[in-house]
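Table 4 source record.
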Amino acid sequence: MRYIIIGAGAVGGAIGGRLAGAGHEVVLVARGAQYEALRAHGLRLVAPDGTHTYRLPTVDGPAGLGKLRADDVLVLTVKTQDTEAALAAWGPAPVEGGGTAAERLPLLCAQNGVESPRLALRRFRRVYGVCVWLPAAYEEPGVVSAAGDPLTGILFLGRYPHGTDDTVRRIAADWEKAPAIEAPVVADVARWQYAKLLTNLGNAIRALSGPADSAESERLRERVYAEGESVLAAAGIPYASAEEAKARRGDKITLRPLPGTEPGGGSSWQSLSRGTGTIESDYLNGEIALLGRLHGVPAPLNELLQRLANTFAKERRPAGSMPSAELVRLAEEAVLRKSPSQPQN
């Protein structure tokens, strides 16, 4: 199999680099400065086991590959807000022997949130979910870091929305050969993705008020999680418990200091730090806001975080520039008001 990593940033670069390190065929897909750096100098992956450089084929879209191969596997690692554009570009790509990528090739959604696999099913026949436990950061064009030790990451794989098949088992067998990667195959991948969604609800807090924890921000984070749990319960959506996830992870992914890198605050923090102009909060806190409206459960804290994160991204405000006390004050006001979109008792 040849793995085409659509979005060779932090997570995509880490997965692509580890697969290349195991001898698998990998193609990186990137844009702008990242594309230019990967083409000129290769991918540099900084990890606890050293710094690795991989000179891999790099394209900026399907046209750079001509007809795709029948044994290609598409791995989507862009942020969810960029999913639709990626699907529109890669779905119609022709495959050797006839047909298109959307008709014939497996597509793996290795992203935060739960929306991308649903979007993919509108175009692709064979969609697989990936619950990504892989802390990684984009350091500069061509350089990504992955600080997890002894494992770079654990990647739960399954057919979306449920089930397994021979394809996902072959993919998992390949990924298990990669250095420091575990790739368990599960029949309930969506259950793990919703569990990861809950843990990602605090991303916006770190992005807005900084990665340094305080008692105030920790209490706010707990309330945001509890709000998410209430919404999922009302929606009847199952998810792996925090205890189950902790037991599965154990001490396999411990963050280590890496030379030449700065500790980050998660994917949303990185979006604000890089001034990309977009952030994935619509598909994290916004997912809880959506489900809350559908099922009549107020979610004022998640609505607030979604709104503030989008404002910071649009206005390109610095990551961590809102004092935590101010964020907590706004949260208290939001709870008192509840949400104007929710019926009042």
